[in-house]
């Protein structure tokens, strides 16, 4: 066997090994999540395989339950409100720290993204200590502000990454032609950074939608979101309705993933 033939076989085996390893990693990551979906149709009242039969009853229970419907509505209201605040704050912060003359950037940036790094329990306790004197505990506004604080770092990171490819000469040219700062931002900068803003907003919404620790500290007994309702269901009595809701959340997460992938595709496309 020649040296060239041996090299080709080695490369082929290496590529096959990488593919097998990649497939194994994907299965390891995705299988525990996807296994929830078929189990949510199980007739059994226990979390068990093999399935004893198929039913849509657990999904019907979700949409016929006043508690679950209230939790779904509350999650969307809190998530959208927190996302709106996080998007505005994160975009403004990213624009500010991206300016070459911005002072103490090396100190400010770690502070802005701290909620992503610090353990969520510590963040929740800190927010409780800050919000309690302001009478924001057990209020809708307190939960929205807390979730906005958690989502803002995602917007800062994605918008900052987009701003690295933005040519500041375009803003200077707009100002030279008489455009006001607001007009220059709206007509020149915003269209360029919009994919980054949208990607950060989706991450912020997903963070709020999936959050359970902070709402246990900040939210009152009436502040029920989907994760908190699931937590209460697991704690009080294990019910397959939780699996049905987990299946719906998995589908919702897949939709968000597809949206992020599409926006990242726009991010990687050359700016015009």
Q: Would you kindly provide a written description of the structure presented here, covering whatever features stand out?
A:
The chain has helices at 3-34, 36-39, 57-64, 66-97, 105-112, 114-117, 120-131, 140-163, 168-176, 181-209, 213-218, 226-236, 241-268. With 272 residues, it is an all-alpha fold. It is globular, with a radius of gyration of 24 Å.
Task: Walk me through the topology.
Elements: H1 3-34, H2 36-39, H3 57-64, H4 66-97, H5 105-112, H6 114-117, H7 120-131, H8 140-163, H9 168-176, H10 181-209, H11 213-218, H12 226-236, H13 241-268
- Taking pLDDT < 50 over at least 5 consecutive residues as the criterion, the unreliable ranges are none
Overall structural class, as computed from helix and strand content, comes to: mainly alpha
Distance between the termini: 53 Å
Percent helix range: over 70%
SSE pattern: HHHHHHHHHHHHH
Mind describing the biggest β-sheet?
A: none
How large is the radius of gyration? 24 Å
Structure annotation, total helices: 13
Strand content: under 5%
Number of strands: 0
Quote the average pLDDT.
84
User: What is the 3D shape?
Assistant: globular
Question: What attributes does this structure have?
Answer:
single chain, 272 residues, mainly alpha, 76% helix
